[in-house]
Design goal:
The structure holds 4 protein chains of 4 kinds.
Chain A: H1 8-19, E1 35-39, E2 45-50, E3 53-64, E4 75-82, H2 97-112, E5 122-124, E6 128-140, H3 145-159, E7 161-162, E8 165-168, E9 171-174, E10 183-184, E11 192-199, E12 203-206, H4 210-217, E13 228-234, E14 240-247, H5 253-286, H6 300-307, H7 324-336
Parallel strand pairs in A: 4-6
Antiparallel strand pairs in A: 1-2, 2-3, 3-6, 5-6, 7-10, 8-9, 11-12, 11-13, 13-14
Helix pairs in contact in A: 2-3, 3-5
Chain B: H1 13-17, H2 22-42, H3 48-52, E1 57-59, E2 73-76, H4 81-99, H5 106-123, H6 127-135
Chain C: E1 15-19, E2 27-33, E3 36-46, E4 59-65, H1 73-89, E5 99-108, H2 113-128, E6 136-143, E7 149-151, H3 155-160, E8 163-170, E9 176-183, H4 187-216
Parallel strand pairs in C: 4-5
Antiparallel strand pairs in C: 1-2, 2-3, 3-5, 6-7, 6-8, 8-9
Classes of the chains: A alpha+beta, B mainly alpha, C alpha+beta, D alpha+beta.
Subcellular location (chain D): Cytoplasm; Nucleus, Nucleolus
GO molecular function, one term (chain D): RNA binding
InterPro entries (chain D): Exosome_RNA_bind1/RRP40/RRP4, KH_dom_type_1, RRP40_KH-I, Rrp40_N_euk, Rrp40_S1
């Protein structure tokens, strides 16, 4: 883990900005960055981006021997990996305390809170159960990894569907996705971790960015460190399943109380978005439209960098004030050549309705179960 | 043996012979000696062409020599008077030469200069034109 | 083997690319070739521990991450191919005693993953501003039962093909940089595949130039 | 592939024109180009540019700084080691800044520089094989515009944005300079230090600078007027 240097003037200026009621990127205290969830073509794989922080989550399943103490329960395994892709200061396959911290919080939030019905994962008591493995890969670390990772875990678990199983006598048949519709995982409730940054012990800021996180956890010169990161794990029924504090101790309790109220409506918002995006992903799959990560490749990200999500922004700076005519031009010439057309030498564009015989539930006709296993 | 590529100032032989010049003579001889010695050493690798060829290509790693950028430290409307003073010191030259208030426009100036030169050649009496130069302080 | 190959009937999968997809990396690119999607991040030159430094050139470290978690030998194999290609492409001698890390994340694998990863690595290197000798393009093709060459095979064609050949060409004089193949094929099939892929690599280089021009006339 | 001035070039292209000019006269080959035995090859992707006295370079997009001699950079002091400060300039290694290279610094009265301070310094020594060295004084021992930058705010951006705002024809500083008093230091290593009287003005300045990266000249002007109105409109 290489050293990340923070200058005094950054610390001083940010503390001043926060104490005067503003934030560097123009958000107010309880406003979060833009949340986008995009699903891949397989079940249980999704990329969640919270502002510029991006996390990839992938769920996979296999049949294993259950634990002796829990013979009739499936196993859930969560693994967080931070590669040098997240930021230059991370080194390859090196367990940093950040990965341990994230792993521990996610396990508390998704395993200990019993949000997944593990009994439904049991195939044969004491012999065969499903083991779900959630792999979290941090793609870009722009602050608030815990919230982004937890949304990714929740979305991928909720989106994941495991193959159907039929038992006849002592023989067990696992059907491929094409033979029988896969079974979604059963979630009792939808917990999400919400993170807050605490500045000089009385200001609560939600969804801290990278610089806000590093400033509030850095020890300021005039003695000790009055900042910290408070993580609240809550589900849509406002039940609390996780509370974690890193950094300075809190001595006024209404701060935690305020955090819980904020977390409640933020969590409601997130869970609704997760459910909505899974539902419309399923409808797209019914309509046989090929949904794929390649849809997140657009040219408007570069434009948005210049306009919407600037890292330093005035509170009510909105981009539309620049004469709309310029914007139209920018957008217009983008639409004419959305994709470099002369490279589509392959007649079928990915978005067209023409479907190449693909894995997945869509084509029933000529499949024999042998040849098309996952 | 290739002469020294750079023309070196050499003291005449007679001066070197003098008694008090003994030590400098030995130094120069030692220098010559080790230059030749070196040359002999790598002569099979270093060709004359290598020794005399001067590259026409100058690699430059920085953009500041390519695009003429203004200085990076600026201050406006009295924020940092010291920097503003430095800025005024550097930029006036351009301003003055840039939009200097010209009471005589350039074309008129050029026409006069031509007339001036032709008149000077015809009359060939320089005295009339020395007067202006004296006025310049 | 100067057989004339006209490039009209070549079939290359549609390619979509975006630069600067990751704000924290020095250079990043996400590329989709057909339905296979990869995301590559390049960080460098960075400082690395003493023992892994080398005096005359920078140390290149390539990390291939699959979607599923368990690291496998196949990843190490892909890493070594990508490292070997980048080693020749990057002018490492300009950044001695430093380290360059290339991290490849597989997002969708519908065939041709390694050639998509190689092309995406090249685009990420271009975005990172690291000095390079040349640009490289990876093309894959399959030899089916009847022996004729199918360029950029789809998933089915790849699984049912007799052999899969992958070639990486460099842009200076279209020389072969790396070649790897699976399955058995005849010598003549190899020759023809080589020529067809070399001709097809022009399309990829034109794609690179188009992406760079799209981004540079904005900046 | 052959490339000519003004083209979009990729590494591996070579430029005939440069080698032609190179035969006769001195040629300065800037960043992004490399002279090899037969041709001058392009090593970075971007637009090939030329300036009159035979100066050629490639304007490419880059975020990571490679130290180059003579460039003014903004660094953060990270360590005091003996009689030198270690300064992070965003390149692969930290640069060395001797405590004597400040105006009026002697063995006895050392310059008041703390760890975490931001300095605006010139890159004196910068080669690929040596550790970069910074100085805060010019050859006459005067500090000129260099030295420690107190409070204000520093942020990172791409090297292109620095070259864009320091370009004399860029309308950004022109349209901002008579809006509100502010101070600015742009380091060639992709870091900008800004300072204004109030916090909102500083944020507005940062917003204008970062917003200008992908905008054309007219859009920059309209953005600046837009930001100035927002700033003026709100008393808070």
């Amino acid at each position: 883990m290489r050293e990340v240097y923070l200058s005094n003037c950054e610390k001083g200026f940010l503390q001043k900005v926060i104490s005067e009621g503003h934030r560097l990127d123009g958000r107010n205290y309880n406003e979060s960055r833009k949340l986008e969830i995009s699903f891949g073509s397989e079940y249980g794989s999704c990329i969640v981006s919270l502002g510029e922080t991006k996390v990839l989550a992938q769920v996979s399943c296999e049949v294993v021997q259950p634990k002796q103490i829990r013979p009739n329960e499936g196993i859930l395994y969560i693994n967080v990996e931070i590669s040098p892709m997240a930021a230059p200061q991370f080194e390859a396959n090196r367990q940093t305390d950040l990965t341990v911290y994230l792993n521990r919080l996610l396990e508390k939030c998704y395993k200990d809170s019993k949000c997944i019905d593990l009994e439904s994962l049991c195939i044969v008591v004491e012999e065969k159960v499903w083991s779900l493995r959630v792999d979290i890969k941090v793609l870009n670390h722009e602050g608030n990894l815990i919230e982004c990772a937890s949304i990714a875990t929740l979305a991928s678990l909720a989106h994941f569907k495991r193959p159907d199983v039929t038992r006849s006598g002592d023989k067990v048949i696992i059907h491929t996705l094409i033979e029988k519709d896969p079974i979604p995982t059963v979630l009792y409730h939808y917990p999400v971790c919400i993170a807050f940054a605490i500045f000089s012990n009385d200001i609560l800021v939600s969804d801290p960015s990278f610089i806000e996180e590093s400033v509030c956890t850095s020890s300021s010169e005039e003695g000790g460190n009055k900042g910290g990161i408070l993580v609240v794990g809550m589900n849509q029924y406002k039940e609390l399943c996780l509370l974690d504090l890193m950094g300075a101790a809190i001595y006024n309790s209404n701060l935690v109380h305020k955090a819980l109220i904020n977390a409640a409506d933020r969590c409601k918002e997130i869970v609704d978005l997760v459910k909505k995006s899974i539902v419309n992903n399923d409808t797209l799959r019914q309509k046989r439209v090929k949904k794929n990560f390649s849809d997140i490749i657009t040219t408007e990200h570069m434009l948005s960098l210049s306009k919407r999500d600037l890292s330093i922004c005035l509170k009510n700076y909105n981009v539309d004030d620049i004469e709309m005519s310029q914007d139209e031009e920018m957008e217009d010439d983008e639409d004419q050549n959305p994709e470099p057309s002369k490279y589509d030498v392959v007649p079928s564009l990915p978005q067209t309705a023409e479907i190449i015989a693909q894995k997945g539930a869509s084509s029933w006709i000529e499949i024999s179960s042998g040849s098309e296993e996952d | 043996m290739a002469g020294l590529s750079r023309k070196k100032l050499q003291l005449p032989k007679s001066v070197l012979e003098m008694k008090f010049m003994k030590r400098t003579k030995e130094r120069i001889e030692k220098e010559l000696e080790n230059i030749h010695g070196h040359e002999g050493l790598y002569s099979n690798i270093i060709t004359n062409e290598m020794r005399t060829a001067t590259g026409n290509y100058i690699p430059e790693a920085s953009f500041i020599y390519c695009e003429n950028l203004i200085d990076g430290r600026l201050s406006f409307k009295g924020m940092n008077p010291e920097i503003e003073r430095l800025m005024d010191l550097e930029t006036p030259k351009e301003e003055e030469s840039g939009e200097m208030q010209k009471d005589v426009s350039d074309e008129v100036l050029v026409k006069n200069m031509n007339k001036f030169k032709t008149r000077k050649r015809q009359s060939l009496t320089p005295s009339k034109y020395n007067v202006p130069s004296k006025k310049k302080k | 083997m100067g057989v004339e190959i006209d490039t009209k009937e070549f079939k290359l999968k549609p390619m979509k690319c975006e630069f600067n997809f990751l704000s924290k990396s020095d250079g990043s690119a996400i590329l989709s070739q057909g339905e296979t999607v990869t995301l590559v991040s390049v960080n460098g030159p960075l400082d690395i521990k003493m023992q892994s430094q080398s005096i005359e050139k920078s140390t290149l470290e390539v990390l291939f991450c699959t979607k599923g978690g368990k690291p496998s030998v196949a990843d190490r194999y892909k890493e070594s191919i990508i490292r070997q290609t980048c080693e020749t492409a990057i002018l490492g001698s300009l950044y001695p005693r430093s380290g360059i890390t290339v991290t490849i994340q597989e997002l969708e694998d519908y065939g041709g993953l390694l050639s998509c990863a190689l092309n995406c690595t090249c685009l990420a290197l271009l975005n990172s501003g690291l000095a390079m000798r040349f640009v490289f393009a990876a093309i894959s093709c399959a030899v089916d039962e009847s022996g004729n060459i199918v360029l950029e095979p789809t998933q089915e064609q790849a699984t049912s093909a007799r052999a899969l050949l992958n070639f990486v060409f460099e842009s200076r004089n279209k020389d072969l940089l790396t070649g790897f193949s699976e399955g058995s094929y005849s010598e003549s099939a190899y020759e023809e595949a080589l020529e067809r892929c070399r001709a097809a690599s022009d399309l990829v280089f034109t794609f690179y130039r188009d992406i760079i021009s799209k981004y540079s006339n904005v900046i | 592939m052959k490339a000519s001035v003004g083209d979009v070039v990729l590494p591996g292209d070579y430029c005939e024109e440069i080698s032609a000019v190179g035969e006769k006269a001195k040629v300065i080959i800037g960043p992004g180009l490399q002279k090899e035995i037969d041709h001058v090859y392009v090593t970075k992707a971007g637009i090939l540019k030329k300036r009159n006295p035979n100066t050629y370079w490639v304007d490419n997009y880059q975020k990571r700084y490679i130290p180059a001699r003579g460039e003014n950079v903004i660094g953060v002091v990270v360590q005091k080691a003996g009689d030198i400060f270690r300064v992070d300039v965003g390149s692969s290694t930290t640069a060395a800044l001797s405590y004597l290279s400040f105006e009026g610094a002697t063995k006895k009265n050392k310059p008041d520089v703390q760890i975490g301070d931001v300095v605006y310094a010139k890159m004196l020594v910068a080669s690929k094989d040596m550790e970069p060295e910074l100085v805060c004084v010019d050859s006459h021992g005067k500090k000129g515009r260099m030295g420690v930058l107190s409070d204000g705010f520093v942020f990172k951006c791409s090297l292109n944005l620095i070259r864009k705002i320091l370009n004399p024809h860029c309308p950004l500083l022109e349209s901002l300079k008579n809006e509100w008093p502010f101070e600015l230091a742009a380091g060639m290593n992709g870091r900008i230090w800004i300072k204004a009287n109030t916090m909102r003005e500083t944020i507005a300045l940062g917003n204008a600078i970062l917003g200008a990266e992908y905008l054309s000249d007219e859009e920059i002007k309209s953005m600046c007027t837009n930001i100035a109105t927002i700033l003026a409109g709100h008393v808070s």
